[in-house]
Amino acid sequence: MTRTAPDSRWQRVRPARGLEAVLDRRFGLAGSVLVGLAVGAGAIALKAALNTLADGETGYILLAAAVVVAAWLGGLPGGLTATLFALILNSAIFLPSLGAVEAAIRVEQVREIVFLLAGSGIAILVGSRRAARDRLVDALDEVASLATDVEARDARLEVMLAASGTGFWEWDIRTGGLVWSEAIFRQHGLEPGQEAPDLATYLATIHPDDLAAHQAATTAARNGTGTFSLDFRCLWPDGSIHWTHGAGRVFFDEDGQAARMIGTGQDITERRRVEEERDRLLAEERRAGEFREAFIDVISHELRTPITTILGLTQILARPGRSDDREARMALLEDVRAESERLHRLVEDLLVLSRVERGAFVVEMEPLEPRRLIERVVAQETGELPSLAISVAIEPALPIVAGEGTYVEQILRNLLGNAAKYTPDGTRIVVDARREGEHVAIRVLDDGPGIPQTSIERIFELFYRDPDSARTVSGSGIGLFVCASLAEAMGGRMWGRRRPEGGSEFGFTMRSLEPDPLDAVGEPVASEL
Question: Can you give the pTM of this predicted structure?
Fold first, then answer.
């Protein structure tokens, strides 16, 4: 059988079967008639040559054989043509040779009638067999052609699947048996050529967090949708995690019951990685945009306020006659100092924030005495907040801790300043410090309204401020974020919560450099500065 390349399915050449195929293809009915005439004439010529060697019946057997040949080569038209033409020639050639012998003529006429009937029957029989044979050959040709087309499609499909990292699978729902292509084995970190795992083993390779979704999708396909499509993670034997996109279709039996599912699997690990990286970059870009907007807002409001105040106070001080009123001048200078201190602390927070955002934040760890740091900061803040009573409760023999003193003081000042904003005048703020295992916990407790329940999860987010308090209390939304960043950079943690008895608690931990003592620790000693 001759065929063109598999992808040229419309350019087919019918397979050659011999002389009869050539005649049919080139001449059709005319060719069949010519075959009949030629075979009939040849048979009569051969009969004439053999007539002296054999009796009349033998000659007619030769003519019958010629009809068989003509019918096979030319089909029914060829067989009938050979029968009629041979009969005509036989009458024209052999009847005159009998002379006037009536008995011989009648016998020959009977032979001709018998030959006509027999030849026609032979032509019909052989022609029908020839037609049946042609139909069978055509059917076989079509089957072979279809098989070749299927093989070509399969080959192209395999190339496309391999190029896209896609494999195919089949699941016998009744028995649970699985059939995997080589690509599916590779998508599960397995070598091809082995038996596909059973259903339970396969399900064990699906990531636990995706198993429920996988089972729900297959159940929905079996019970109604008829199709399955899901992205899920697979656990490889080496412990690595890979993403797969599975898609399939359910085939139902005559009773409408799900019988099997056939589908594809594609390794999308790289695609998911790219998507996650894209999402990360978009999130970073969005966060950077939000940061810029919030930062500009802080600069335009929180920095402008103290700068404007300082500028106004210095202009007042520069007016003629102010230099003689020493008491008024000192009050104005104190206001300038307070606003300058406020500006200084905001700039310190902004510097820390900038380093954290750039990933350039470095802490120089050193041994610190937490008691001394706490007492120094409380003493400074007491002068800044005369309307509040700040007390300390420090555990005796508090151990040395690891940290950077400047940053510890910055945390404490921010927490005390934050507490002062929300604590009514005349109430207390307590700084509590005690050992907790391998850490020292420092807490700032106030009697204010407490942290709103809706804001507890977000209070350490950059630029976040509770919507209700933001309308009545000024602030930048930077301080608590800076405190948490500093505490974590020094190896500790930070928290904020509502106190059961009212007010808020903000605290952080620092790593102790001394082993936990075995003897009992005394009660904290309270003092008011």
Answer: 0.48
